[in-house]
Amino acid sequence: MRRRSPGFTLIEIAVAISILGVGVVTLQQVYQGSLRLQNRAGRQSMAVFRARAAIDRLLAEPLKERGDCQTADSYKVCSKVALAGPEDGGGENADDPGFSESDLRLYALEVDVTWQDGGADKTYEIRTLRAAAAPED
Prior knowledge:
Shape: rod-shaped
Largest sheet: 4 strands, antiparallel
Number of strands: 4
Number of helices: 2
Helix content: 40-55%
Radius of gyration: 30 Å
Strand order of the largest sheet: 1-2-3-4
Number of domains: 1
Distance between the termini: 111 Å
Structural class: alpha+beta
């Protein structure tokens, strides 16, 4: 009778390497997925930052009806200022009793930031209302 020598057979080593390979591939996929999510979250955070900066500029400067778009670093920032209407929740500016006796007007401010994400356009939007003096003509 032959004595079995201590150690592993070739089949046992092949099975162990296969299991290890599956584990390494799985960990690599999880790591790559987390990097993609981090990249996507970073782009979205930058869009929110740009939208907040644009709405802050609109709130700080004298208002007049306008709309414009700017593109920088693959982010398109469009801002719009218009007299608020019923669809904005502001009522009719001219007929509203609260505004008819003053020179204040209610303006709707809107900022849209658009960027590419995974082959599709993503958009982040901020809207607000602001009461301001009517522009002098």
